[in-house]
Design goal:
The model has no long low-confidence stretch (mean pLDDT about 95). With about 210 residues, the protein is an alpha/beta fold. About 35% of the residues lie in helices and about 20% in strands.
Length: about 210
């Protein structure tokens, strides 16, 4: 029997990828999954407002509020345990996930990156910086990648990717819009794969 996904979503911004996943769950396109809590380091993040509007617990947990990184990590872990979380989605989360949490949730944390990894990934490659780099490199394709989160930025096992063509006249802004539309299709599909057992949680398939 496949264990239901009890999901925590970590985000720092407007939360459009979270909304895409949540809508897919609410519409029955992702079975066997429930968003238990949304966590943000930013008290004014749109992702928290989406959670509250849907009756989902919304927690502002910022490392700045704690005396040590260890205290922050302990509080974050306690929150995940409180809501019986067994799976974590990063949706525009602009902070590094503590190593202890990565260890305790090994192969149970996924992220979506706005490029075709392993290209245009790594520390500092996020948001518009990624699209600017793709356009500057004159790439013919970009896209989005869902991957397992490990201790290195954007280096975890790739779960699924989707391409989008880069037009000769694309700017970083126009490319960002194309890629975001792809992300909103890809992230719910990746979560569905985990929810129905298409990807093993404790041993990521090759």
């Amino acid at each position: 029997m496949i264990r239901p996904l009890n999901i925590a979503v970590f985000g720092s911004g407007r939360g459009s990828n979270f909304q895409a996943v949540l809508s897919a769950i609410q519409q029955g396109r992702i079975p066997n999954a429930d968003v238990r809590v949304v966590v943000s380091n930013n008290s004014s993040a749109g992702i928290l407002a989406i959670a509250r509007a849907n009756g989902i617990p919304a927690e502002h947990i910022s490392e700045k509020k704690f005396p040590t990184p260890e205290a922050f990590t302990e509080h974050l872990l306690a929150t995940l345990r409180l809501y019986d979380v067994n799976f974590i989605l990063l949706a525009g989360y602009m902070k590094r996930v503590p190593v202890r949490i990565i260890s305790e949730y090994r192969n149970r944390i996924i992220n979506i990156h706005p490029a075709l990894l392993p290209k245009f990934g790594g520390q500092g490659m996020y948001g518009m910086r990624v699209h600017e780099a793709v356009v500057a490199a004159r790439e013919h394709f970009s896209g989005a990648t869902v991957h397992i989160v490990d201790e290195e930025y954007d280096r975890g096992k790739i779960i699924v990717q989707k391409k989008v063509a880069v037009a000769p006249d694309d700017t970083a802004e126009s490319l960002a819009a194309k890629v975001l539309a792809i992300e909103h299709e890809l992230y719910p599909e990746a979560v569905r794969m985990f929810a129905v057992g298409g990807v093993l949680l404790d041993e990521v398939v090759e």
